[in-house]
Structures are given as C-alpha cells and as structure tokens.
Amino acid sequence: MNFGRGPSVVLNVGGTRYSFSREVLKDFPLRRVSRLHGCLSEQDVLEVCDDYDRERNEYFFDRHSEAFGFIMLYVRHGHLRFVPHMCELSFYNEMIYWGLEGSHLDYCCQRRLDDRMSETCTYYAAEEPNGGPEGKGRRPPAAEGGKWLERMRRTFEEPTSSVAAQVLATVSILFVIVSMVVLCASTLPEWRAPENRSVEEQSRYTAESVREPSGIIEAICIGWFTAECIVRFIVSKNKCEFVRRPLNIIDLLAITPYYISVLMTVFTGENSQLQRAGVTLRVLRMMRIFWVIKLARHFIGLQTLGLTLKRCYREMVMLLVFICVAMAIFSALSQLLENGLDLGTKNKDYASIPAACWWVIISMTTVGYGDMCPITVPGRILGGICVVSGIVLLALPITFIYHSFVQCYHELKFRSARYSRSLSAEFLN
Predict the structure, then answer these.
(1) CA-wise closest residue to 33 among 102, 103, 92, 97
(2) CA separation for the pair 287, 379 (Å, rounded)
(3) S-S: 6 plus which of 48, 57, 179, 334, CB 3.0-4.6 Å?
(4) For residue 313, how many other CB atoms are within 10 A of its CB?
(5) For 126, which DSSP code?
C-alpha cells in the first residue's frame, strides 16, 4: 500500500472491524480490498471505500456486516454460502461489490441463486412494461403523448390496471365465448347439412354463408380481434418484441385462418378444385379453437400454466426421455414375448414394435383402453412391470413441476393484486 502509515490496516464494515497486515492486502481474494494496496492518494482511497480515518489507518465500508462475515469465511475456508434469512439477490449484490461472482458459491447455493434470478427476470419482464426498473424507461412528465401511449398500453396489456382495462377485458372475453359457441354449433348435423351438397351448390353456399347469422357473428368477432391486435401493435413500444410474444403469436394464428378462408373462397369460385379447397377451409375454420387460448390474457390459471411450462422445460424434456426409453424397452420385449417367439399362440396386435409402442404408452399412463392386451403369461408379467414402471417414472419429475406451478401462481397473483390496488386508488380518486 502506497498510502497511509502503520504496519496494519483496519477495515470497518458496517461497524465490524477487521485488522490485516499490509502484505496480506496485496493478494487478498476480494478484489475491492486488494485495490487498497495500490492507492496513491486519499482520492483513490475514497473511490474504493466510503470513508477513511488517516490517524487510525481505518477504512469504512457502509455495507452489510453479516454478509461480509460470511464472505470472510470464504476467504478463510474456501466455502461461500448464503446468509440465513437474507435475500439471495441482496447477498449476491454484496458479493458483486466485494469482487466475487456466482461461481464462487457452493453448488447448492448456485442453484438457489439461478432459480431466484430466473424468477426475478420473469417478474420484471412482466411487471416493468417501461423496459426496466424505475427511472430507466420513463418518459419526461411533459411528454403527454408518451403518457397517453403508456396508458393505452396498460389498458390493453394489464386487465386489472384500470376500469377501462377491465371493461375491455370483459368485452374481449364475451367475444371469445360467443365465437366458441358459434364454432361448436357449426359442427351440429343441422348446421353441417349444406356441406353435403354438390360442387355447384357448395360454391353458392360458400358465397352466401357470410350473409347468414353465423357468418355475420363470425365476421364481427374477427373484426373485434383484428382491431384489438392492431391497436396493441400500434401502442407497443418494441414492435419486434411484440411479434415474438407467445400470446401475440396465438392471436395471429387465431385471426389469420379466417382471412385465408375468405381469400380462398373468393379466388376459387366454381373451380373444379373447390372440393379440395373445401377441406382446407374446414381445417382453417377449425383453427379458430386457438381463440380459447386468448383467455390467458385475463385468467391467472392459464398464465400460470404457460409460465410453468416455460420454466420447467428441462423437467418436461426429462419426462419425455423417460417415456421414450421405457417405450423402446417394453415395446421390444412385448413384441418378442407375444409374437416373436414360436410358442403356439401369436398375438396379432403385437405384430411389430411400432404397434406395441401404443400398448406401452397407454399402459405406462395407466389409461388402459383394452384394445390391446397380452395373452401369454410372460407378456402379462411384463405388462404389470410396465404399469408399475410408468407410475414411478412419471411421478419423479412431477414434484418439481408442481412446486414450480405453485410458485408461478403466487407470483402472478401478487402481480394481479398490485394492479388491483392501483385500480382501487383510481376509484378513490
């Protein structure tokens, strides 16, 4: 150390004093502390610490004393763990301040930190539509246009942020319900009778269907969803991010088939390919079922399901791997025992391994349709083992998925409660 006098140096961290020799600071494991060794002036020292006492050669750090005590345990023993009853992110901020990284933590604490940081990033992505913490994405108070856009963005994105947002969400839910009722009613025999007509009659029916009540209701619903999607796109701050969001992609998938079917009807006319086009039109109309997923904007349960699947994709992949490995093993053994060996009784349902895969799936999931079943004694024993293995293998990742689901539900519920409090303040004002 080129600044200060005395054989020792005192670090005062949050009221707790630590004494070190000058030579120890040169290669100290904490980067901020080791920087004191190269300080040449008092100004350099104050860039590293908060205050300095020249007479006692004491350096003051206004930081968490208990957290620094655990960091000192790492310096002495080489093991760094979280402080009990302290937020993981707060302790991580202390680590960053003193020059440590997440890799210095023990493995168990690293996993806790990764999970907490993942949750926090998701929380801020949903909670901070301005693009970051307070102050980074805000517009100046004088920018009335920015305030108006932000208010519109909140109205369309957060159903509980204001009275207008709740009214808009209610209307949107009603349109989704009406469209689903019309879709279900269109599959009734009375509604499907015109589809059995000839090509010429089908052409006239397709041209006139838009003028029927169901066609009018469908057009009104599509018009509402299209207008809502366009307005949300206009008021969005980041257009590229808007297009990449899952719920917006679902909106496009729900709206696009209607316009494609209308264009196909207009351009096909009485062409001889109308029958093939009619099948395509029915497929496109059935894609309106995606409108049900639009309810995820207004219901916490569907949002929780999507967020859980996003966070637990590793567990889901692990579950699929378990099923695929077990399916490969049990399907090969069942085909061998039921049809591959010349035992006098061959089960034709197990003629091939791909055919036996269906039996393995319905057995491991304990569905048991009964369309396929082993008839030999070894095959029945194998079937029992398959069922028990399915219960065990499927239950292993379920615990992690369940805990993640509960955690996601509480986070989204807290977020909804926060916007509800702002709604109550709006009523009071």
Answers:
(1) 97
(2) 42
(3) 57
(4) 10
(5) H
Please give the Cα distance from 231 to 152 (Å, whole number): 9
CA distance linking residue 230 with residue 224, whole number of Å: 10
pLDDT of residue 417: 64
Alpha-helical (H) ranges within 245-312 are 246-268, 274-286, 300-311
Give strand pairing partners of 363. none
Q: How far is residue 12's CA from residue 16's CA, in Å, rounded to a whole number?
A: 5
Q: What is the mean pLDDT of residues 41-67?
A: 87
In this structure, are residues 345 and 366 in contact, taking their beta carbons and an 8 Å threshold? no
Instruction: Tell me the H-state helices in 128-162.
Output: 144-157
Using an 8 Å Cβ cutoff, are 118 and 311 in contact? yes
- Tell whether the model's pLDDT for residue 57 goes beyond 80: yes
Decide: 127 and 415 in contact? Cβ < 8 Å: yes
The candidate with the shortest Cα–Cα distance to 329, out of 283, 360, 288, 306, is 360
Q: Rounded mean pLDDT of 248-272?
A: 72
CA distance 139 to 31: 37
pTM: 0.49
pLDDT at 194 over 70: no
Do 294 and 172 form a contact (C-beta atoms < 8 A)? yes
Q: Which domains does the chain have, with CATH numbers?
A: 8-127 (3.30.710.10), 158-295 (1.20.120.350), 303-418 (1.10.287.70)
Q: Which of 61, 65, 115, 113 is nearest to 92 (CA)?
A: 113
Q: Give CA–CA dist 360/84, Å, rounded.
A: 47
Q: Is the pLDDT of residue 263 over 50?
A: yes
- Alpha-carbon distance of 117 to 121, in angstroms, equals 6
Q: Which residues, at least 6 apart from 191, have a Cβ–Cβ distance to it below 8 Å?
A: 185, 214
Q: Which residues pair with 16 in a beta bridge?
A: 13
Q: Find, among 421, 362, 356, 366, the residue nearest to 388 by Cα.
A: 366
Could you tell me if 310 and 245 are in contact, meaning their C-beta atoms sit under 8 angstroms apart? no
**Per 3-state DSSP, what percentage of the chain is helix, strand, and coil (rounded to 5)?**
70, 5, 25
Q: Which residues contact 397 (CB under 8 A, 6 or more apart)?
A: 315, 316, 318, 319, 322
Per-residue pLDDT reduced to its tens digit, 88-120: 888 888 888 998 887 788 878 887 887 777 666
Q: Which amino acid is at 279?
A: V
What phi and psi values does residue 299 have, to the nearest 5 degrees?
-125, 130
